[in-house]
Input
Amino acid sequence: MTHKIVTSIALAIGLFTGNAMAHGDIELGPNKGRILEFSTNETMHGEVTEADGKVEIAVLDKDMKLVEVKDQELNATAGTREKPAVLAVEKTKDGFVIPAPKAGEWIIFQFKLDGSAKPITARLHYNTTVCDPCKQPEWRCACEKK
Output
């Protein structure tokens, strides 16, 4: 019985601490967009911004400079585990554009440097609730909540 109580307390502390720390761990890019890791060695990133009901993903190098998109590929899925929806991805000179998912959904990105490369998976919780301190949507908030 004591083991169950200790385990429950440890789990609750872990969940509380994880949620508190995760909020401040968000990195913003040069355009104040959310940075996602698109490589295993931090040499390629995606900067996610949103405008006019579309999510834009700029491809950045290790120095956070724009990379011209040629052979790179991106797949995006949103929705729920039970009902995932593949999003239409439009390639641009500097990145990709997808339709914005419903508020609160997760977006799962699979980025490839080229057609033969192994995909790198990145996830973004598209939480559009506005953060009080910074007035940004939660998915793009990098302030330290206290």
